[in-house]
Specification:
Length: 163
């Protein structure tokens, strides 16, 4: 495929996971993490607030990366990102001067709300219906009584009808 197919591979990878929510979570975590390392003129109060800020920032970065590389855990990653952003509001300089908290809540909500797209394959010429969900295709056929089920399955009459 080479370099010519790289943009298409990137686009397919990006669309198969909650990319924008993960990016917002990573940016929020980086912003919350970086504030305790800023000069004291910028900081409201250094003190003990530096430790939770760095830890919450790292957790939010980890949840954003988790949403990218293991999208099947997006529900947990989204909820933990929102909880971390809300805790950062209280524990670390107003959540990175509100920017980190708002980005974290937005990113966590986007991660939580993301659903994988399933595309429907057009019906075959012989009247069977096939659906593809990214990797495998599943075909449904009807038996003599009109009930549908997987091909060759015993008791297909008890299966539910397709819409």
């Amino acid at each position: 495929m080479g370099a010519a197919g790289a943009p298409n591979r990137w686009r397919r990878w990006r669309r198969s996971r909650p990319f924008w929510g993960g990016l917002a979570a990573v940016l929020a975590g980086a912003e919350i993490c970086a504030l305790p390392l800023a000069p004291l003129k910028v900081m409201l109060q250094q003190g003990i607030a530096g430790v939770p800020s760095v830890l919450m920032g790292l957790v939010m970065i980890l949840m954003g990366l988790s949403a990218w590389f293991t999208p099947q855990h997006r529900t947990l990653a989204g909820v933990l990102t929102v909880l971390g952003a809300m805790a950062a509001l209280v524990m670390s300089n107003l959540g990175g001067f509100l920017i980190g908290t708002l980005l974290g809540i937005l990113g966590g909500a986007m991660i939580f709300a993301w659903r994988p797209v399933t595309r429907e394959v057009p019906p075959e010429a012989d009247g069977t219906r096939a659906e593809a969900s990214g990797v495998a295709e599943v075909a449904e056929v009807s038996d003599a009584s009109g009930a549908s089920g997987p091909p060759g399955a015993p008791g297909a009459a008890a299966a539910s009808r397709l819409p």
